[in-house]
Recover the amino acids of this structure.
């Protein structure tokens, strides 16, 4: 089966993990600190504004507490969002308010967001679809006008930029995922970014039980290092040196990954350009870069599901991300989302990852064309 997503791991990661095993320290340690430092440099920020955690979903849930969002507050999400974002809002007692998206990019615009702002609006939990940057300038202006917090879900946008600046660094908080199906992978893990260093300090305590003092070997000050106090009823959501070891090796390979993914994207653009019953992704604005996490085609003849089955029967796996939250009955949300509905019924994410060989790519393209010859 040709996978739609697939990690690329090698002996370098195994060797670095072996070193961790031999060190006898598997928990959060110097490698987590090193990864935070190197990742901060990679996105053009500083270590005092980033914090590693165990997964991106933890970042979404924690953002509600850290941004003081709770009952009677409203949080705006594009309906094409990850279920973890919707759950994070609802779990803290806030009201989930959805907005429509652009049917081609699947990103929300400032205009989409402004339509659903009310006096109870507290934050925008923004989703950069597949690492394609939202148009941030008007969204940031909107947030300033209405005094709204901005939380950026850039889970797959590890190399995406808007006007020369990494997405995830615009809002009050931003976050990237390193789970098994992302680009930079370490099993599970994430980095959070904070506009204010003070919020980062609050988050560091929140993500480790709310402890006011460090414990164990890290506590070199207290005479009785086993004593502690807490400032909040926080979680335990930290990265460890095993996952950080993988992440460091993956970070070193990231530019090569991007080059290959860009090649795959260009090949699809070229080889599928003349397929009349498909729409290919919109060209990226010249002042933006993307991480090439998705390559989403849109099937114009109502046969998206048939194409997906046709490909899967020939060992080519595809999917649609993300199922619109307004269609999830558990959220009990009604409203009109015509662009999201059209996208959800006609969009298909086809394989794109750095492990795809030329034979794989040729097969994917020829099979899509074969479907057209038979059914279109």
């Amino acid at each position: 089966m040709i996978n739609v997503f697939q990690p690329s791991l090698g002996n370098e990661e195994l060797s670095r993990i072996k070193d961790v095993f031999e060190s006898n320290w598997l928990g959060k340690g110097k490698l987590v600190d090193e990864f935070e430092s190197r990742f901060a440099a990679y996105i053009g920020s500083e270590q005092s504004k980033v914090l590693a955690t165990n997964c991106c979903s933890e970042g979404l849930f924690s953002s509600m507490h850290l941004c003081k969002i709770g009952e009677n507050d409203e949080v705006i999400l594009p309906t094409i969002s990850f279920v973890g974002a919707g759950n994070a809002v609802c779990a803290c007692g806030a009201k989930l308010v959805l907005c429509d998206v652009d049917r081609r990019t699947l990103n929300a615009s400032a205009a989409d967001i402004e339509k659903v702002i009310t006096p109870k609006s507290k934050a925008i939990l923004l989703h950069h679809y597949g690492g394609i940057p939202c148009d941030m300038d008007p969204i940031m202006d909107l947030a300033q006008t209405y005094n709204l917090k901005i939380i950026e879900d850039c889970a797959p946008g590890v190399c995406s930029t808007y006007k020369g600046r990494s997405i995830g660094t615009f809002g009050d908080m931003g976050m990237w995922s390193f789970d098994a199906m992302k680009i930079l992978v370490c099993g599970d893990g994430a980095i959070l970014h904070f506009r204010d260093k003070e919020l980062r300090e609050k988050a560091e305590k929140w993500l480790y039980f709310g402890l006011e003092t460090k414990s164990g070997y890290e506590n070199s000050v207290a005479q009785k290092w086993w004593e502690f106090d807490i400032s909040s009823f926080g979680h335990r959501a930290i990265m460890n040196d095993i996952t950080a070891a993988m992440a460091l090796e993956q970070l070193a390979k990231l530019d090569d990954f991007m080059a290959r993914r860009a090649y795959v994207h260009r090949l699809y653009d070229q080889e599928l350009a003349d397929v009349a019953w498909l729409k290919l992704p919109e060209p990226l604005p010249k002042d933006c870069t993307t991480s090439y996490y998705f390559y989403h085609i849109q099937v114009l003849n109502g046969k998206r599901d048939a194409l997906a089955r046709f490909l899967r029967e020939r060992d080519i796996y595809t999917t649609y991300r993300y199922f619109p939250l307004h269609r999830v009955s558990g959220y009990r949300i009604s409203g009109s989302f015509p662009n999201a509905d059209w996208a959800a019924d006609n969009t298909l994410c086809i394989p794109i990852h750095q492990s795809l060989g030329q034979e794989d790519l040729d097969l994917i393209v020829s099979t899509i064309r074969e479907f057209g010859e038979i059914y279109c």
In short: The mean pLDDT is 96. DSSP finds eleven helices and 13 strands in the chain. The radius of gyration is 22 Å. The chain has two domains: 11-250, 254-375.
